[in-house]
Specification:
By secondary structure, this protein is mostly helical. It has one domain. It is about 80% helix and about 0% strand. The longest helix has about 30 residues. The radius of gyration is 23 Å and the shape is globular. The two termini are about 20 Å apart.
Amino acid sequence: MSTKSITCEFITYSFLKKQMEPSRKIIMLIYGRAFSFFLSLLIPFFLTRILIKEDYGSYQQLIMIYTIVQAILIFGMPQSLLYYFPRKETHEHPLLIKQTWTILFFSALIVMAIFWLGAQTIDSHHLKEYLILLGVYTSLMIFVMPIQNLLTLEGKISTAMWLMVFFTIIDLAILPTAAWLNPTTLGIIHGIIVAAVLKAIMVLFHVYSTYFTKEISGNSYIKEQLAYGIPVGLTAMVYVINVNVDKYLVGLFFSSSVFAVYYLGSLWAPIFGWITQSAAQIVTPMMSKAHKDGNLSEIKELYRTSVSKLAFVFLPATILLIFVAEPLILTMFTETYRDSIPIFMIYLILVPTYSLNLGWILMASGQTKYLLKLALSMSIINIALSYWLLTTLEGDNRLLGIPFSTVLVTWISTILVMNRSLAIIESSFLETYPLKEMWKIASVSALSVLPVILLSALELSNPLTLVLSIFSFGIMFLVISYKLKLIGDDEIKLAKSFLPFEL
């Protein structure tokens, strides 16, 4: 297979071909995401063993406030980079970056003002301190958020990969240590601020040394960038509210300890979005350039290839996680969080949407206002349905009924985005989606789970069951996929090139 063919297999095209080995670099980015994900799982692994349920639940409730505020007040700057960078000449890039981080600077000031004013309205000393510190953390992270998109656009994908890993290592080193030194909500907040300071220093050093020291040419278009970015930011905020409305209601109607249980059950599915984001960093700018050139066929091919490759990850992951839910949750978070298992199972229904709901076409074509309207509509429906289920159901079903609303609304939103995207590229569902490949992947996954079912009947320890299940499933899935040519020789060679030893 030619280099071009390999490139197509791993979701990249000419935008990065001119700069580096695209296939290898993109896989590195995805591997970085995956490695960061597994490292990040060690953080709740330690925190749930150091903090009591109430403190861990309170910490995660504060983090939810952060996710909402940063989603709107970052003004869609990370996404605007993906849109404008490929549309501008190289000599115009310093101007784009300078005005982007200038916007982020004023955004950080607004964040600090909002949290400080909010703190003044609260009588509780602890809550007041929490809000002020959370404002500091949010302001720092606003500078950090766009860096992975920027490095990817610069062609520094290996750097982006290692930065993801390093940032996770920073969190892994600092957060459990802070919790151990002060096993309270306040202690962990101090930890995330220290981690944020280190990240912000690294990002600002790169941005300043690379762009602010260069001569700026061209006319500023901050208004144009904000006109694109603000709807994206509003959409992100609404999306965050939509996917977290169940958690808001749990936090409102239940105790912090129940919230901790619910949060750990709902933690997993959204993490798969990290992989989608990795692909988006590559595909969105290419789609943006193709849309500018009127090349709908290239957008269609990018879309189809993206769905195919993401499905190859998400479908088997979903099926495997269904059968290892119990040993996974109990191994990671102890018997204390057993009640997280049914919540975890419900959320797994969301995982396939991350390979189908590719709003990249809408982003690349500048249809951010449609995404905002859709997100707002779905959010209102989700809030109403979740509240109705919460107040109608009884007993344990009160808690279990809430995630069903989020799952249902997310699937409806996915279908609507799919239809809109297909209309833009002037294609049909059958033409665009690799249904045959997806069916093969699902069938192989179902077959590969048989040894996992046998292992569950042996009544081994949870950690041993988990390790053996993942290993047996992975080996069987890869072997059968290779025999059915879902994996080719070139993909194997490419994967082997990342190993530190010869096979």
